[in-house]
Structure formats: C-alpha cells, structure tokens
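Budget justification note: compute hours in this period were largely spent on complex prediction jobs such as the one shown. Inputs:
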Amino acid sequence: MTIRLGVPSKGRLMEKTFDWFGARGLTLRKRGNDREYAGVVEGIDGVELALLSAGEIPRELAAGRLHLGVTGSDLVREKVAGWDLRLRELAQMGFGGADLVIAVPQGWVDVDTLDDLDAVAAAFRRDHGFRLRIATKYHRLTREFLKEHGVADYQLVDSQGATEGVVRNETAEAISDITSTGETLRANGLKILSDGMIHSSQATLFRSSTAEWSEAHRATLDALEDKLGL
Amino acid sequence: MMPGPMGPEARAEAARLSAIFEGLGAQPVDTSILQPADVLLDLYGEDIRARAYVTADPLRGEMMLRPDFTVPVVRAHMDEGGDPARYSYAGEVFRRQETDPARPIEFLQVGFEIFGGEPAQADAEVFATISGALEGLELRPATGDIGILMAAVRGLKTSEARKGALLRHVWRPRRFRALLDRYGARTPLPAHKKALLAAADPFEGAGPALGLRGRREVEARIATLRAEADTRPLSEEEMALVDMILDLRETAPNVLSALRDIAVDMPAIGDAVTGLTRRLDAMSARGIDVDALPFEGSFGRTTLEYYDGFVFGFQSPTRADLPPVATGGRYDALTRHLGKGRAVPAVGGVIRPELAVQIREGRA
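Corresponding output:
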C-alpha cells in the first residue's frame, strides 16, 4: 500500500522541500523531463510523490486524496474549514516563512492598532456612505481575526494579486496580505498595524486524517517518521 | 434513527406551532428564500458572510439564502403593513457551518412577531406564547434586557462621542469592555497615541497620503483623539454601576430590586427599569412563574446584532449539547433602520421545530 505525498510543483518552495527531505536521507525528484508532475521518492519504499500547486494541496489533503502534503500553514487555515479536524501538523519545516498582516497607508498617522482601525472604519462609513474596504485573498482568516477583535464597519474586497497596489488605485482603503520582510508594503506606502499579525505562516508537513490509513499505510508512515526524525 | 432537521417529524411540529400562532390572530407571511445580500451586509457587516450562503444573480447582484426571517418580515411590514400587526412564518433557513460539521446547514424555523401595541404586553405575550407552545419539554428559560445597558450608557456623564462608541459595540462584549476600561482610565493611553498627541507636527516623517481616506479625515480623527484625551475619565462610581448591570445574574425579582438600587445613583435607567417591572407584571398575569425566572444582565449580547430590549431563550438542561430551542427579543431599532425613517416597536420569537422533536423523543 503506497502513501501519497504531495509537494509544491515548482519554484523555491519545491526546491526547499526537496532539500528538507534530502537532509533527512530521502531523495525527492521529478520523473522524466522537467515538465512532468509525477515524481519519485528514493530512500524508502511505499511512498508515491505527487507534484501539485501549493494552493491545491490543502484541498487534496482534506479530501483524503493525499496522505501527506507540504504547503503553507496559511493556505491550510484559509482553505480548509475546521482544518484541525481533518489535518494534523507533522512538522514545521522552517522555510517559506511569511506573515499574514493587516496594513494601512503610512499617511494614516492616527492609526496604529486594530482599535484605531475600528474607530476609523466607523467614521469612514459615516463620511463616505459605505464600509471601509480591506482587500485580500485570505477572506476567512481575515474575517475571523477581525471578528475576534471586534472590528466592525469594514468590508472585504477580493484581490487575487498585486494587493499592495489597491490603496493607491483607490479600490480599497487597507489590505490584508502576506509579507515576508514588509519591504513591498513599505515601498507601496503602507505600514503594518502593531497588533495586525493574523497568522505567521511557514511550510508545513501535514497528515490527512480523512485519507485511508490501513495497517500497511500506517507501517509506511511509521518508517517515514523514523527517517524524518518525527 | 434521529429525526432530521427537515424530516416529516420536524415539518409536523412546524405545522403544529404555526397553528398555535395563527390561532392567536397571527397572519401567515411568506418570504423569498433568496434575499438581496446588500441589506443583510449593511445590517450585520462582513460577519454574515461566515454564516450565510452567498450566491450571485447576473441582474440583481449578490443574493443570500435567507439566514433568518426577521429581516425579510420586518421589510415586508415596513413596506406594506399597518400597525398593529402580528405575523407567523414557517420555513427553511440556511446557515454555513465553518467549524462544526455536525451542525445542520438547513433547518426549519417557526416564528411569531408582534408589531406595535403596548411593549410590556407584547413582550409578555410573545414569551408566554413560545413558552406555552413548548410546554412539556421542561426547557430552562433565560432572559435579559439590552435596553437597560443601553440606557445606562446613554446616561453616563461623559461625551457623546464616548457614548456613541460604546453603543456601537454593545453586541461586541470584548471591544465594549476595552472601550469602557479606557474611558474609565483603567488602561493607560497607548504610547503611540501619547506620541501622536504630543507631536508638534503629527505628519512629520509620515509616508504619503494614499487612497480615499485623505489628510482631512486623518486631521479630524486627531482632533477627536485630542478631545477624547481632554475628556475626564468616567468616575469609579459610574464604572462600578455599569459593571453591576453587566454582572447581574439572579432571579427576576432579585434583579429588579438590584436595578432599583442602581437607579437611585443612575436615574437614566429609571424608564428601562419601569419597563422591566411592567413586563414582569404582564408575564405574571399570563401565568409565567416570574419569581423563578432567571435574568442575566449580559444575555443576548453575543447573538445577532439587532435586539435592543427584552431578550430571551429556551434551552434544554438535559441536552446542553443542542442550541437553544427558541430565542427571541425586541428589535425596535431594526424597524427604524429598515423603515427608512419610520419606526414601530416590534418583538418576536422563533422556534426550531427539529430540536423540539429531538428533545421530546429523548424524553419519551
């Protein structure tokens, strides 16, 4: 019985993932030419490698079509409702770090905290006749965070890319986005709220609780965990 | 097998309850399942997206599968109805479940709403009707009155800006508490605010002004912050009185006597306390055992953001795992909000028939 391991199919995230397994005696590589999205795992029997977009791995894990998968912890929390019932974290891998944060224009010298954002949202709605817009692609995480902190009178607007530019373009007043160093935010005239950290994300190895786990699968997982020192 | 939320047992129970409400003269109303999303978003804010299914129509824009009946019933009444009026409704509502897969996403609701009339009498009639309709299930009632807390806030000896901010967050207990503690100087002014207010030019070294919220709005907020910093802290006495109201948790007669004591130092809640007295009298006249009725000062503050007076719920003490079988309350401000200037006192209650069926079967 083979267990299916899903890892990101390209870029630095793929390379770092290969390095992480490599450092633990397991060689992951793409099969055949570089365009193919099937791969092999050497150093252990019974593990099949699937190369997928990092954004699809949470869904595949939740559906049980992957036994194990490497993806950002932010993506799992955003895309899988009740994620901790369906997935378990096996290892935080120490790379792919990025913070999901709330950022506002630097010119808002009166705004430093969520408390300020809430007060400004109330005034903005009164003055402009609509709710203050926060652009993001992390709708669930942002909404839960703002609800938890009692921020009202805002609305989320969808932004699937170049989110740092929306304030300048006047399609939103604030953003909720991923940043690793904050450099792009600063370059776009934005600043992070001092208590605006929603989630500190990194590449994480997840185990699906919904996949089939026969005795043979479990034996393979035990062997893999031994190798990985988990 | 356990009866489902939409099964024949639940439908039969819904029909039984509807007949009771219609027997009291309630006019049956029907509402569309698809509701315009903008009205609900305007009312509840972004939080409603976590609870309601959103879909889109090419011509009408975003629509929501109705998450409850109150808003469409109030809209229908404000558009067409005359006062006084009483309505009953029964049908399915839809709720997204983001965390607990065991909770149903579609279930029936049966409700009874009274528009107009003497408030204490209407409150008592709705409560007694719901209570009577569920007789035999041995449910535990819970009651509260958000109007008392709101009256206390309106009566604070402080700025209108502070009162407005507190009233805006009555339904968000955590932020309400944070604001209250700040206004009472229990928490210090954050360093960022201190520096901002002390700066000769607050904009020195600031980045560019970007977006729709311009420099003028930032200046206006700084002026607000200055005025706030110059406002005297709430007195210890007033803070203690508000805390006492929030912490009330006793039988209704004991709460009433505590509130009468509080009203001596805080006359602003006098009318609300008189209203509570009248309501309890009216409930007693309808056969409710008022002496044993629980009352909580904070009840109803974490549910939907429209109850602004009497609030109640009925829960099974033996099935604490289930949500309340029935909930309800007064929502005068909602009618003003949806009535475009016109307002009608309104109170209502809603029952989930499938929960009543489950509890009844568990007892059999």
